[in-house]
Write a structure and sequence with these properties.
The complex is a heterotrimer.
Chain A: E1 3-6, H1 24-29, H2 34-42, H3 46-56, H4 68-73, E2 83-88, H5 97-104, H6 106-120, E3 124-129, H7 134-149, E4 165-170, H8 180-187, E5 211-215, H9 216-228, H10 230-236, E6 244-251, E7 257-262, E8 265-266, H11 267-273, E9 283-287, E10 296-297, H12 298-301, E11 305-306, H13 308-313, E12 322-327, H14 332-346, H15 352-369, H16 377-388, H17 396-410, H18 412-421, H19 428-434
Parallel strand pairs in A: 1-7, 2-3, 2-5, 3-4, 6-12
Antiparallel strand pairs in A: 6-7, 8-11, 9-10, 9-12
Helix pairs in contact in A: 3-10, 5-6, 6-9, 9-10, 14-15, 14-17, 15-16, 15-17, 16-17, 17-18
Chain B: H1 10-20, H2 32-43, H3 48-58, H4 62-71, E1 83-88, H5 91-95, H6 98-109, E2 115-116, E3 122-127, E4 139-141, E5 145-147, H7 152-161
Parallel strand pairs in B: 1-3
Antiparallel strand pairs in B: 1-4, 2-3, 4-5
Helix pairs in contact in B: 1-2, 2-3, 3-4
Chain C: E1 2-6, E2 9-13, H1 19-26, E3 49-52, E4 59-60, E5 71-73, H2 77-92, H3 108-116, E6 139-141, H4 151-159, E7 165-168, E8 175-178, H5 191-195, E9 201-203, E10 216-221, E11 230-236, E12 239-245, H6 258-262, E13 277-280, E14 283-286, H7 289-307, E15 312-316, H8 322-334, E16 340-341, H9 365-368, E17 373-377, H10 381-384, H11 386-397, E18 401-406, E19 416-421, H12 427-442, H13 457-467, E20 472-476, H14 478-482, H15 486-500, E21 503-506, H16 513-518, H17 530-535, E22 540-544, H18 548-551, H19 555-564, E23 567-572, H20 577-582, E24 585-588, E25 597-600, E26 606-609, H21 622-632, H22 643-651, E27 679-682, H23 698-701, E28 711-713, H24 715-720, E29 728-732, E30 736-743, E31 751-753, E32 770-775
Parallel strand pairs in C: 1-5, 15-16, 15-22, 17-18, 17-20, 18-19, 20-21, 22-23, 23-24, 27-31, 28-30
Antiparallel strand pairs in C: 1-2, 3-4, 3-5, 6-9, 7-8, 10-11, 11-12, 13-14, 13-24, 25-26, 27-32, 29-30, 29-32
The chains are: A alpha/beta, B alpha+beta, C alpha/beta.
Bound molecules: flavin mononucleotide, iron/sulfur cluster and FE2/S2 (inorganic) cluster.
């Protein structure tokens, strides 16, 4: 089971029974759907609801960290047809929190989405679920059936006059559908190629209608925020970084998994919760917010707290909260090569700089890794990333560039060693041992 | 022309209808991803005829359906073995043995990525992040079954299970 | 309006404009590839990046809306750096094979690379190779050169109306292609060649035949459908080897149909008649012009003398120029004949003498785009006037309601609001029902003749749409004009329009359908119309530019009458075996590209053009030939020194639009009785068979639109006859022909659709009417 430890559990309160605690009755027993009932019974004004979310300082958990209440307030009031969309495409390497959220507690997301629908005046919602997690998609569909049967979804919910229905849309293998407008295109039955913004989804979203789109974790937090009040939620974290956050810790730790901690928790504490470094090896580097976030060397990350502002100050991004931990057995060139390949494979292909540049980056890093690097390759990589960044429709091109730039910036000598000596600084046998796949001593 | 999609079974069409019902009445195309999955499940892979049939059923241009079928990774535009194994080799998984797991399978089956064993039983694919990095190494069987913590012993067990 | 500043210059632009539109208004060029003013915005090439004050990143000018006070810098360091960056990316996988690329010299990538490219790229990896695709006989591919701007894809989906191209795969593997094994079959496919900014999509017929700088070019006007699309005709050594659109927003916008673009191949056909020919003792001889003209004038004079001028008939192609038509009718009238007509495919002439003026579109072409409610009556619009169909397609997208009354439910690729599909004989009755229903909805008194009609649900739905507001237009297509009760449809259409307070008009069939009336190439008084000249055979015929067996409403009968005539004088750019059988003299006259002349399009616009090439061989412009004939025959008023003088006389000046356009008609009692029993023929004129020139364009003849005629029926008709698709079926009219049966779900019961204007179906005779159909 993925969750090991929490401080101040909110989102993860329901996870303790593992796969046995996800259903509607369990959720209701934990106080689930109470917030929806309260809002509907009191006919809470939409503006009050949004104000409460604003007060919580909840920032989007999908990666960009945009204030959720503010996003909801952008929805035009008068539009007759609006949508709420949940982003469970979770394809950012290192991220696996939304999967567990829907696995262990799908109803908190459902309740959050219904409340969001109420707040922005939408009658229909979709949850876009990552292609590779079919069992989670099935579970979510089951949870929807339960919610529908209990009258939480459908026409005239709990006799309130408010109607909202929710459906699951299953992805089928495209990272770019995590980008919100690529996701909308995908729901519309097209390739997931992001749209140029403006117009933003709040004005022109799903089927051209105003749409609010949030990450799973963002929606899941809503019932808890309304339960404890925006202020109290904010106070769990730190100013401008309200509440708790799920961190998916992967890589060279003893206990990879999801950890819910208050915003502002020191990285060192998180690492400790994750059981510390595997095999007691030395921390080399951490990607603190999913593969698109710049890598930080050990000394810098050890000084950070886990919140948007602290990580940004250190030169990276909190992103989706995917913490990829790398120890000294890692060859940074090889690590970068794999990431560069990912962005090359996942570029949707519409923007010239991304379509052409992502392959260029990969090929040059690949060359260096395979002992064919050239003296000016690092300059070339920096120049190509420079030419890609900020020139495309979506942020994937930037996401492809950030790792390249940060790996070179922080580990330049390792790259130079590769180019010069046509081999790796880290002994291949050491690298091989690092993964823990082979029992010690096995060939 | 009487029925361009009669190559799909009534059961498949019924499943597609259930997907269509999720979307507004004038947005049938929204169901194309699900419909292609249903068709692929039934036929094993997506031939030109199968894609055309799905497009016809949903009233969309065949090339638009082909765009979708070729954009998303998990559609198979070529025949695959009875068991398609997809191993995640992305960095977070690789740190915990993803690449080694793939190598192990390659050696066991005697095939490389994108190859099928001579008996038509296994096809091996390299996958991108499956959103399960905490369970690395992870492997997907026939797109829908996720297997976690695939160390040598577990891989042996899985391969033996696949009859 | 908002005020913005571009490169230091302030200007006012409309709200919602994009930076690139604003820059265009100012005459500032911003480099771009994916942007095209007629297509949706993709913003994918990123070439148009500019600096916007306060924006941290460069912004795509094609997609960024202007805001009040915005300051844009198109040449700042940030902008130029971004543009150069994009150019480098575009070139790394581009073959840079300009010397052997057909686009060389007119390639946007080549042009911009000079301005924005670095001299040498740092890209040293292997370049991408993309397999070519077979898009059909017209458009050739070199997909490795493709820069994925997706203009072509957007064109098929948005302008042509059906997504025939897509971008498969993703990232660097993205590839523009049709669906596996498919070609691009839209009648507008040639526009892809113009739209492609690089040499990925080029003209199959043209490729490798010349470099652009070797070409001479001349403005011209399309000689095909009634729109009169504006052309640039390009020649090398006096041979037309390419035709491109000349942009005219009021007519063809920036588009051309494939017919207009590729029919030039017919100009170089082996069937071109290059020397005058006369038949002597049953044998053909090539002769000098003076011999041929002498022969022709004698033949005509003899007939006129012996039998009177009325024994001569003039069958004039509506694809002829105004000047040719004018001189031809003047010549015939000078010989004492009133038997003159250019309405060769018309079968009901009962409106003659009742019309108030020249029938026309009833509005400007551009106004068609502004209609909110449209009823198309009897029109194969997508094949007959493809660019009007394109306009209505865009209208439907902005919310206009388009309805159809027709005998075939062909897919117009336009979102229709309502439709009524009925056999030809039922069309008047259904139109009458629509009139009745609209009158009821509008509270207008209806023609008493409609009192007994029951309004069908389809008619009611159309009426409801038409009456629901906005500007309306009732448009009668070629099929309605060729209909056996065309005059009734005309009257009813007028009644409908007046009940709605909307427009009414005819979609011009040929380049000079309106010009024919203006040139007086129609009979007056007791003169015989085209059908009558054929029904009661004449002693002599003058045929101008037509192949009557293919271009007349009853080709079989036309052939019979021509064959019986004592003398047939044919002025034609082409010869055919049929012509050699019936004619006595063949005079080689210029096609549109080798003469000056004028077409008056369906909106009454006068469009003159000059010759783009010297006449081939001994070909002469027809107006000159007619002038000499007039002189030889001693007809007065034939001393013109130029085609302009002819035009001035024909038009009474040099107007932009002709006068006398009027669709009003004195309608007598309406005749709504449907008499047909058995199978009625629905005859379309396939797009690439509509006139002698296009029939001889080889590449067009290989297009899907040029498939051999079949006997098309709906499923219940096939079943009734015990036929399966592909089986043989005998269709009998004047004579029987055997055709392949084809299922066509777009047809109503009781009809068989057999294309006209094709040698395989000439024997059937009349385009309209009842035919026998049986399993062969
Ligand atoms: C390339 C790319 C991939 C993304 N992937 C995801 C994703 O997997 N899940 C997610 O929630 N947001 C993802 N995002 C961010 C979304 O575009 C969007 O900002 C987010 O769903 C908004 O929700 P939030 O405000 O609740 O974070 C991605 C963005 C980009 C540019
Ligand atoms: S930046 Fe890349 S992934 Fe994003 S829209 Fe452009 S091509 Fe697609
Ligand atoms: S012209 Fe603006 S991005 Fe292509």
């Amino acid at each position: 089971m993925a969750l090991i430890d929490t401080i101040n559990p909110l989102l993860t309160t329901g996870w303790s029974k593992g796969d046995a605690g996800w259903s509607l009755k369990d959720y209701e027993a934990r106080g689930g759907y109470a917030q929806l009932k309260r809002i509907l019974a009191s006919k809470m004004p939409q503006d009050d609801l949004i104000a409460e979310v604003k007060k919580s300082s909840l920032r989007g958990r999908g990666g960009a960290g945009f204030p959720t209440g503010l996003k909801w307030s952008f929805m035009p009031k008068a539009a007759p047809e609006k949508y709420v969309v949940c982003n469970t495409d979770e394809g950012e390497p290192g991220t696996f929190k939304d999967r567990d959220l829907l696995r262990f507690d799908p109803h908190s997301t459902i309740e959050g989405m219904i409340i969001a629908g109420y707040a922005v005046g939408a009658k229909r919602g979709y949850n876009y679920i990552h292609g590779e997690i079919f069992d989670i998609y099935q579970r979510f569909e089951e949870a929807l059936d339960q919610a529908r049967a209990a009258g939480y979804l459908g026409d005239n919910i709990l006799g309130s006059g408010f109607s909202f229905d929710l459906f699951a849309h299953h992805g089928w293998g495209a990272y770019i559908c995590g980008e919100e407008t690529g996701l909308l295109e995908s729901i519309e039955g097209k390739k997931g190629q992001p749209r140029y913004k403006p117009p933003f989804p709040a004005n022109f979203g799903l089927y051209g209608k105003p749409t609010t789109i949030n990450n799973t974790e963002t929606f899941a937090a809503i019932p808890f925020i309304l339960g404890m009040g925006g202020e109290a939620y904010l106070n769990l974290g730190k100013p401008n970084n309200g509440g708790t956050k799920l961190f998916s810790v992967s890589g060279h730790v003893n206990r990879p998994g999801n950890y819910e901690v208050p915003m502002g928790t020191p990285f060192a504490k998180l690492l400790e919760m994750a059981g510390g470094m595997r095999g007691g090896r030395k921390l080399k580097a951490v990607i603190p917010g999913g593969s698109s976030a710049p890598v930080l060397p050990a000394d810098i990350i050890m000084d950070c707290t886990m919140d948007y502002d602290s990580i940004a100050k250190a030169g990276s991004m909190l992103g989706s909260g995917a913490v990829i931990v790398m120890d000294e057995t890692v060859c940074m060139v090889k690590a970068l090569e794999r990431l560069a390949y990912f962005y090359f494979e996942e570029s949707c292909g519409q923007c010239t700089p991304c379509r052409e540049g992502s392959g260029w980056l990969y090929r040059v890093v690949h060359r260096i890794e395979h002992g064919e690097g050239r003296a000016d390759d690092l300059d070339l990589l920096n120049r190509v990333t420079d030419n890609m960044m900020g020139k495309t429709i979506c942020a994937l091109a930037d996401a492809a560039a950030f790792p390249v730039r940060s790996f070179i910036k922080h580990f330049q000598s390792e790259f130079e060693y590769h180019i010069e000596h046509k081999k790796c600084l880290v002994d291949p046998a050491v690298q091989r041992a690092g993964s823990g796949f082979f029992k010690a001593g096995a060939a | 022309m009487n029925n361009q999609y009669d190559m799909l079974s009534p059961e498949a069409l019924a499943k597609i209808d259930r997907e269509v019902a999720k979307y507004p009445a004038d947005q049938k195309q929204s169901a194309v991803m699900a419909a292609l999955v249903i068709a692929q499940d039934e036929k094993g892979w997506l031939s030109q005829e199968t894609i055309a049939a799905v497009a016809a059923y949903l009233g969309m241009a065949p090339v638009a359906a082909y765009e979708v079928a070729s954009f998303y990774n998990m559609y198979d535009l070529q025949p695959v073995g009875k068991y398609k194994l997809t191993v995640c080799t992305n960095l977070p998984c690789a740190l915990s043995g993803g690449v080694h797991a793939a190598d192990y399978v390659k050696e066991k089956l005697g095939i490389d990525f994108n190859e099928t064993t001579a008996d038509g039983k296994f096809t091996l694919k390299e996958g991108e992040c499956m959103g399960a990095c905490g369970d690395a190494p992870v492997m997907l069987v026939n797109n829908k079954r996720m297997c976690s913590f695939m160390l040598p012993e577990q891989i042996d067990k899985l391969l033996a299970e696949c009859k | 309006m908002v005020e913005i500043e571009i490169d230091g210059k302030t200007l006012q632009v409309a709200d919602g404009s994009t930076i690139i539109e604003a820059a265009h208004q100012l005459g500032v060029y911003i480099p771009h590839f994916c942007y095209h003013k007629k297509l949706s915005i993709a913003a994918n090439c990123r070439m148009c990046l500019v600096q916007v004050e306060k924006a941290p990143k460069p912004m795509p000018a094609c997609a960024t809306p202007v805001t009040n006070g915005m300051k844009v810098f198109t040449h700042s360091e940030l902008a130029v750096k971004a543009q150069k960056a994009v150019m480098e990316f575009l070139l790394i996988n581009h073959p840079l094979d300009c010397p052997i690329c057909d686009q060389g010299g007119e390639c946007q990538l080549q042009d911009l690379a000079v301005g924005y490219g670095e001299s040498a790229s740092k890209y040293e990896e292997e370049k991408r190779v993309v397999p070519d695709k077979n898009l059909g006989p017209l458009v050739s591919t070199d997909m490795t050169r493709c820069i994925n701007c997706t203009r072509c894809i957007r064109f098929t989906a948005e302008i042509a109306g059906f997504m025939e191209l897509g971008q498969a795969f993703r990232g660097e593997h993205a590839e523009v292609m049709p669906f596996i094994g498919k070609t691009v079959d839209t009648e507008l496919s040639g526009n892809l060649i113009d739209l492609c900014p690089v040499g990925a999509l080029t003209s199959k017929p043209f490729r490798f035949s010349a470099r652009t700088w070797e070409l001479s070019r001349r403005k011209s006007v399309s000689p095909h459908d009634g729109l009169g699309s504006n052309l640039i005709v390009q020649t090398k050594h006096d041979r037309v080897i390419r035709v491109l659109p000349l942009e005219n927003e009021d007519i063809n916008e920036c588009w051309l149909t494939d017919k207009e673009r590729f029919s030039y191949q017919g100009l170089n056909s082996a069937e071109r008649l290059t020397r005058p020919m006369v038949k002597q003792g049953g044998a053909w001889k090539e002769v000098d012009w003076n011999v041929a003209l002498d022969y022709a004038s004698h033949a005509l004079r003899d007939v006129a003398k012996t039998h009177g001028g009325g024994a001569i008939g003039g069958l004039l192609s509506p694809h002829s120029t105004l000047e040719e038509l004018y001189l031809a009718q003047k010549l015939l009238r000078g010989l004492g004949s009133e038997n003159i007509d250019c309405r060769l495919r018309q079968s009901d002439f009962s409106a003659d003498g009742k019309r108030k003026g020249t029938p026309w579109l009833g509005m400007k072409i551009a106004d068609v785009s502004r209609l909110d409610r449209v009823l198309l009556v009897g029109s194969f619009l997508r094949k007959d006037q493809p660019l009007l169909a394109q306009r209505l397609r865009q209208s439907a997208k902005r919310g206009a309601q388009i309805s159809v009354l027709h005998s075939a439910d062909d897919d117009l690729l336009i979102k229709l609001t309502a439709r009524a599909i009925a056999s030809p004989s039922q069309l008047p009755a259904v139109l009458a029902q629509i009139v009745k229903a609209v009158c009821a909805l509008k509270g207008v008194t209806a023609d008493p003749a409609l009192a007994g009609l029951t309004v069908s649900a389809e008619a009611q739905a159309i009426a409801q749409s038409l009456a629901s507001g906005g500007t309306s237009g009732i448009l009668l297509g070629n099929f309605a004009q060729q209909h056996a009760q065309a005059a009734t449809l005309h009257s009813l259409g007028r009644q409908l329009a007046s009940a709605l307070g909307g427009g009414f008009g005819f979609l011009g069939e040929a380049a000079n359908s309106v010009g024919g009336y203006v040139a007086k190439a129609v009979p007056t008084g007791a003169g015989l119309n085209a059908a009558a000249m054929i029904q009661s055979p004449r002693q002599a015929y003058v045929v101008l530019g037509a192949e009557p067996e293919l271009d007349c409403a009853d080709g079989a009968k036309a052939l019979e009458s021509l064959s019986k005539a004592a003398a047939v004088v044919v002025l034609t750019p082409f010869k055919s075996q049929t012509m050699l059988d019936y004619a006595a003299v063949l005079l080689p006259v210029s096609p549109f590209s080798e003469t000056s002349g004028t077409f008056v399009n369906t909106e009454g616009r006068v469009q003159s053009f000059y010759a783009a090439a010297k006449p081939l061989g001994e070909t002469r412009p027809a107006w000159k030939v007619l002038r000499v004939l007039g002189n030889l025959l001693g007809v007065t008023g034939f001393d013109f020194n130029s085609s302009e003088e002819v035009r001035t006389e024909a038009l009474g000046g040099q107007p932009e639009f002709v006068s006398g356009l009027d669709n009003a008609i004195d309608s007598g009692a309406l005749n709504l009785t449907a008499s047909a029993t058995g199978f009625e023929r629905v005859a379309d004129v396939p797009i690439h068979f509509a006139d002698p020139l296009v029939r001889r364009a080889p590449a067009l003849q290989q297009a899907r639109d040029s498939a051999a005629p079949a006997a098309r029926m709906n499923a219940s008709m096939l079943a009734k006859l015990g036929l399966v698709e592909g089986g043989s079926v005998r269709v009998g009219g004047a004579a029987a022909v055997t055709l392949a049966a084809q299922l066509d779900t777009a047809l109503p019961d009781g009809v068989v659709r057999v294309a006209a204007a094709h040698s395989a179906t000439v024997a059937l005779g009349a385009m309209a009417g009842v035919v026998s159909v049986e399993k062969a």
